[in-house]
Amino acid sequence: METVTVNELTPNDLPWRIEWDPCLCKLCGSCVAACTFQAIRVSVEARSYVYSQGDVPTPLEGERYAVPVIKQTATVQQHCVGCGMCEKTCPNRAIRPRRNEDSRWEIFAREGGSPIKRGGRANLNAGDRTFDKIVVGRISQMTDPSLDAERHTFDILAPFGRVLPADKMPLSVKDGKLSLNKPLPPVRWIYPLIFGDMSIGALSPRAWEAVCLAAACLNEKYNLPVRMCSGEGGMPMRLLKSKYLKYMILQIASGHFGWNRIVKAMPEMQEDPAGILIKIGQGAKPGDGGLLMAAKVAPHIQAIRGVPKSDLLSPPNHQGLYSIEESVQKMFLSMNAAFKFRVPVGIKTSATASSVSIYNNLLRDPYHIVGGYFIDGLYGGTGAANEISLDHTGHPIVSKVRDCYLAAVAQGRQGQIPLWGAGGVGMTGNAAADAFKLICLGANGVSVGKILLQLMGCIGNDHSRCNSCNTGLCPTGITTQDIKLVRRLDVDKAAQNIVDYVRAFDQELRKLMAPIGNSSLPVGRSDALVATDKAVAEQLKIPYAC
Amino acid sequence: MVLKIQSLVDNKRLSTQELLQAVYQGLEQGETEFEIAACGQHDIGGPLWSPKGRLVFKVTNPGQRLGSMCLDGTTIIVEGSTSADVGWLNAGGEIIVRGDGGDTAGHCAASGKIYIGGRGGTRTGSLMKHDPAYAPPELWILKNVGSFGFEFMGGGLAVVCGIDTPAGLTTLGDRACAGMVGGTVYFRGEPGGVSLATVKIEELDEQDKKFLTAGLPLFLQKIQREQLLPQLKDLAQWKKIVAKSYAEHAAAKSQSGALKDFHKNEWLQNMPGGIFGDIYADDGRVVTLVNHAADRLRIPEWKNYIYSAPCEAACPAGIPSQLRFALLRQNRIADAYKLVLEYTPFPGAVCGAVCPNPCMEACSRCRVDTPLNIKALGTFSADIPAPPLAAETGRKIAVVGAGVGGLTAAWVLRLRGHAVTVYEKDEQIGGKLFNAVSRERLDFTVLQKELERLRSIGIKFKTGTSVDKKLYQELKKDYDFVVLAIGAYQPKTPSWPGKEKILPSLDFLKKVNNGEKPKIGKRVVVIGCGNSGMDVVFGAMQSGAQEVTAIDVQQPSAFAVEIERAEALGAKLIWPAFTEAITDEGVKLNDGRVLPADTVIIAIGEVPIVEGLLDKPELTRGYLRTGEGRLFESNVYAVGDLTRLGLLVEAIGGGREAALRIQAALLGAEYVPPKMRVAQDKLALEYFSKEESPAAVCEPIKEALRCVSCGSCRDCQMCLKSCPENAITRVVLEAGDYKYVSEPKKCIGCGICAGVCPCGIWTLKDNPL
C-alpha cells in the first residue's frame, strides 16, 4: 500500500516525462551524472509476485527483491525540461524525455506566489509565422536577366549609420573640385546579419567568445563583414583594447551595465567599435527591462557590471528619457559624442503598435545623428523573462518593418535611417529566407540571436523544450556561468558552426537575390514577393497568389 | 572553283535563310569554297560538310553565330570583325576572325579552333567544354576580353594575349571565370577581377610553355600579325587560370580547421588566454557530459549518523535506538543494552513499561509493517549494571527533587564524575514513577532494580529534606549548578460546589503504592480519563471499590491499552461529561445526570507548588517559566513537571538536557543540540519486506535485522557493490569501526550510492567548483 495524496506532484503533472527502460539500462550512472536539473535520480523499487505452479491455481511465493531504478524527480524546483542530455549520454538507448500532453505545469508552477520565469522565446503561436506565408514570387526568366547565385559576385552590404540624401550632402565646388564642408555622418556598410544583443552574463564566457570569434573569423577569413552586438552586459577589457573591436557594436541599455570599463578602455582602443546600439526594449519581453537571474551573476559578471550577486533587473526604460525627442537629443547626442562622432549610433525598441511614430520622429533627425532603427519583434529570444511577458506581449516584426518602411517612403526618406529587423528571424532554421523577405519589405538587414545558440549546441526549441537559460543550469554550457557546465562547450566547434551557417546563409541569400536579378540587397523590392494569405498580402501591400 | 554569294542583290538583302539556302545549293553542286559578302546574316558556316573534302568560307560582314556548330573539315575566315557568338557550339571547325570577336565568342565551343585577331566581348569563352573523345577546343584572342569571360568554363584552352588593352581595363575584364570548373585560360598582363573562389592563378609549367610556344606563331600567322611574336613569346609575362579541382572544392567546403586556426594563430596571439582570460578562470578543456573528480556536477558524501533516526528524534530523551540495533546486528549485545543508560536510568521502568513509546510511533518500519519493538528492548536493559563512572571532577551539583527528571539529571552528571546531591522532601526517591504510577502498569521489581542502580553510583541523597527559600539560596552558592525538579503536586480542581469532597489522585495513588489501602467507598467516580485517571481506576479497584466510573470532558487521552485494561477490570468510561457539582449523591453533571459516588477522585493534572521555594517566580499557566535551554537562573536549570506537565520520558529528556548543558558549561564547551531527523525520502524502505505479523515475543537480534537503521550506516555494502565506477571502498578504522569512502578520481557523481543506500547515508552535494 502506498500513501500518495492527490496534491502531491507526480511525473505525470510535469511537462516532460522520463521514459526509462529497465531492460536496456545497465545502471552506469551516466544519465543521472549528466542531468544538470537533477530531474532524475536513482531510487530503489521492490519487486514481488505470487505465481502458480501446476494445473490448478497453486499459489507459490516468487522471489522478492529490490532493484535500483532511475526515477523522475517531481518538484517545481527540480523537474525535467526535456533537454535530453540523458538520452544523449545513455550508451544503451534506455532513457529519454517525452513531452507530456497531460502536463499540469502551468497550474502549479507558480508555487510560492512567484510568476513563472524562463529563457528561450514565445511558445504560443510559434507555428504560425507570417514569414512562411510569403514567397519570392517574381522570378526573372525571359523578361529580364537573372543572376547565377553560385557563380556571380554580389554586393551584400547594408548601412549602419545616417545616410544623407544627395541634397543634404555638405558639398561645395571649389576650383572645379568637389569638397566636403564638414564631415559626413559615419556610415558603416556591413553584412545584413548582426549577431544580436546577447550579454556577457546571459551567455557563458565561452559562448560569448565563440560568437565573437565567429564574427571576427567571418570578417578576416571570409570577407563577410558581420558585426556582433555586445548586449547590455558590457565588454571584456581585452576585446575593447583589441583590433577586433571594429567588429563589435556596443550596446547601452537601461541598466547601463558595463560602460565604466568601456569608457576606461577608450584611451587604449586601437579601433573604433562598429557602432553603438541604444537599447530601449527587446522583442521577447517588451515593456520590461533586462533580467539576469542571480544564479548567473558570477564574480566576473559582478565585476564587469559593477554590482553584487543578486537578480539583476534593468529598468523598463532609460531613467532620464521621457520622450522620443529627448531620446534623440540626449541619448543619441551623448553616444555620438562618446566616440567623437566617428561611430554610428542606432536605437532598438521592441516592435510595438507605436513603432511607426517612433520611426517618423527619428526620421526628422535634424542633427544627422540617428544611425539606424532596430525593431525587435515577437519571437525574439531572451536569457530570462517572465513567461507572461514572453507569451503574451510583443508585436510581430514583419508588418512592423513594412509599416515603418512605407512611412519613410511616403516622405521620400527611405534609406536615410537604416531599418533593421529582428525577432524570430531563422526560427525555423532558414534565416536567409526570413532575412530576404524582410529586406524586400524594407529592412536593410536583420539581427539574429537564438539561432546562434542553437548552432553552438543549444537544444532548446519553441515548443517548450529546455528554455532554462534563466536557471544557470544550461546543459550545453551556453547560458551558464558554472565552469563545470561551461566546459561542455567546445568554443572552436561552436564558432565553426556559426561560421559555416553564415557562409551558407550568404550563399542562400544569393539564391534568392539572383532570381530576382539583384546583385545588391533588394531593399524594399516588395514586387519580388507574393503572399499566399490574403490578409498578409493586404497588410503588407504585396500581391496575393494562390 | 569558288562560289561567290552576294547577299545584297539589287539593293535587296537576302534573309539568313535565303543566304544559307544558296550555300546548301552550292554544296549540292559540289562546291567547297565560298566567298560570302554577307550583310549581317547569321549562322554562316555550319554545321556543313561535303564528300568532296574541306570546306572554306571567306566571309565579310557576318551576323551572329558565325561558325556555330561548325564541324571539323570547315575553315571560316573573316577579314573584319564578327558579331556575337562566333563559334557557338563549335564542334571542330577552324574559325579565323581577323578583327574583333563579339560577345560570347567561342560560347560552348567543345572542339576546333577559334582565332580572333582583336578583342573578345563580354562572356567570351563561357561554357567551353572538352569532350575527351576529341582534341580540346582552342580559343585564341589577340587583345583583351570583356567582363564575365570564361563563365562556367568546363574544358578547353583559351589564350588571351592582352595586346592593346585600353587604359583602365584588364586583360580578362571584371569577374572572369565565375563558375569555371575545367579547362585553362592563358593570359598575359593584369587579369582583373577573377573569381578566385572557384579558380586559381598559376605560373606556367613546361607543358603550358610548349603549348604556347608552338601555338603562338601559328595563331599570329592565322590572323596575319606575325610581327607581334617577339612581344608575346616572353612567357614570363604569361600566367594561367585553372579551376580548382573537385577535391579542392570539397576540401574547402568541409574545411573545419579554419576557425580553429584563426582562433589559435590570430585571436589568441592578440589576446593570450582569450577575451575573458583575465576575469574568468578557464583552462579551455572541453569535457564530456559525464566526468570524474573536480569536473563532476555533484559529489557524494558519506554522512553517517549526521542525522538522527525517527525513533531518536521522536524520543524526548533522544535515545538512539537505531544504534542499539546496530550493536545487536554486530552481536555486541551487552554494548547494545548498555548504550541506553547514557540517556536514561529507567530503560526498564519507563521505556519498557509506562512510556507510550513515541519512538515506536515514529519508527520508519511503520511504513513497511509494524514498528520495531523498542519497548521490549528497554526491559532488557533493566538488569544491566551502571556504566563505569568518569574520574571525579570535583564539581558539585545539587538536584532538588528525586522524580525522574531530577534523577536523570543526577544520573547523567554523576556518570561524568561530578559530585551530585539530590534533595528530596519525601523519604522515598522516584517521584511520581514511584508514587503515582499504578503497579498494574509498572512491575515494581523493575523499578526497584533501577532505583537501586541509581543509588549504586554514588549520588548523595538527602531524603526527607524540604528545600526552602533559604536552603535554595545556599545551594545556589555552594554548588556549581542546581537543577530544580520539584514536580507538580497541586491538583487542578475547578471551583465546583462540593469540591472539598474530592480526593486528589496523587495522594490516593501514593497511599495505594505504599500499600496503605486507602479507605474509599464502593462506588467511585474518577474525574479525568488520562493515564493518571486510569492509574486511579486501578488503585480504586485494588482498594476495594466495586463500581468505578471514569469521566472526562473529551475523548479519553489515556493509552488504548490502559483503557482496555481498565474496562476489562469492570470500569466504565463516560465522555463527554461535564461536572457541575459534587453532592452527597455523587457527581452531578450539567445535563442533569447524577453519577452516584461514595468517593470522588480527581485526576486532571497538577501544577507545581513553588511558594515555599521561590519568591514570586514567573509562571505560565502555573508552571515555571525558564529561559532558553531550561536555564532558570544564572546557575539553575529547571526540568520536569515543574516547567510543564508531561510524559515521564519528557521529564527524563529534560533532566538529560539540563545535565548536558551543565556538563558543557563546566567544560566551557558548546552544548550540542539533538541532531536533525533524517529525511524520510532518503530512506529506501523498498528493501524491507512486509512481515505477516509482528513477533509475539521480542527477539532482539531479529528486530535488529528489521531495523532500517535510518541515518546510520548498516554496513550492507549496497553502495560499494552498486557503484558503476568502483569508486567506493570500505575503510576499517580502529576498534572495529569503519567508514565508506568514494574516491574522487573514479566517482562521476551519479548518485547511485545515495539512491541505493537504505539508510540515507550517502548524500549528494553540488560540486562547489
UniProtKB/TrEMBL annotation, chain A:
One GO BP: glutamate biosynthetic process
EC annotation from Swiss-Prot or TrEMBL: 1.4.1.13
Catalysed reaction, written as an equation: 2 L-glutamate + NADP(+) = L-glutamine + 2-oxoglutarate + NADPH + H(+)
Molecular function as annotated in GO: 4 iron, 4 sulfur cluster binding; glutamate synthase (NADPH) activity; metal ion binding
Binding site for [4Fe-4S] cluster 1: 90
Residues given in the record as [4Fe-4S] cluster 2 binding sites: 80, 83, 86
Domain 4Fe-4S ferredoxin-type: 16-45, 71-100
Entry keyword set: 4Fe-4S, Amino-acid biosynthesis, Glutamate biosynthesis, Iron, Iron-sulfur, Metal-binding
Amino-acid biosynthesis in keyword set: yes
Recorded family membership: Belongs to the glutamate synthase family.
Name used for this protein in its record: glutamate synthase (NADPH)
Organism annotation: Candidatus Termititenax persephonae
Gene name, Swiss-Prot/TrEMBL: gltB
TrEMBL record, chain B:
SUPFAM superfamilies tied to this protein: 4Fe-4S ferredoxins, Alpha subunit of glutamate synthase, C-terminal domain, FAD/NAD(P)-binding domain
InterPro entries noted in UniProt: 4Fe4S_Fe-S-bd, 4Fe4S_Fe_S_CS, DPD_II, FAD/NAD-bd_sf, FAD/NAD-binding_dom, Glu_synth_asu_C, Glu_synth_asu_C_sf, Glutamate_Synthase
Keyword Chloroplast attached: no
Entry annotated with the keyword Metal-binding: yes
Bilayer-crossing regions: none
Protein name, per record: Glutamate synthase [NADPH] small chain
Taxonomic source organism: Candidatus Termititenax persephonae
Pfam family name, one: Pyr_redox_2
Keyword line: Iron, Iron-sulfur, Metal-binding
Stretches assigned to the 4Fe-4S ferredoxin-type domain: 703-734, 738-767
Gene Ontology molecular function, alphabetical: iron-sulfur cluster binding; metal ion binding; oxidoreductase activity
